[in-house]
Amino acid sequence: MHYTLDKNDKYALIRLHEEKLNTLISADLKSELLIINSEGYNNIILDLTDTQYCDSSGLSAVLVGNRVCRNANGNFIVTGLSDGVKKLITISQLDSVLSISPSLEDAISTISAA
Length: 114
Known about the structure:
Elements: E1 3-7, E2 12-16, E3 20-21, H1 23-38, E4 44-47, E5 53-54, H2 56-71, E6 76-79, H3 83-91, E7 99-101, H4 104-113
Parallel strand pairs: 2-4, 3-5, 4-6, 6-7
Antiparallel strand pairs: 1-2
């Protein structure tokens, strides 16, 4: 899995540098999200700008991040959604469960204001 991780005082930002978030990537992403959370980061931003495709296992990884942050009274924000990924989230009715930000700057502002 190709990604970059930026850690800040208030949040961790993981930028996924993969075109597809699928079965081949999802287990690694889940593990990374759990590790980041276990290091004390309750606020995680997942930037999917480079990701054009997502399947059910990819959504499962995103939901793991959402769950661990909420359990730690933090925020999990997804940003940089392509039209295809956004459509899958909407069809799955996860747009009412996930915090989705239109831009990375908005996501950072949301966490900074919390």
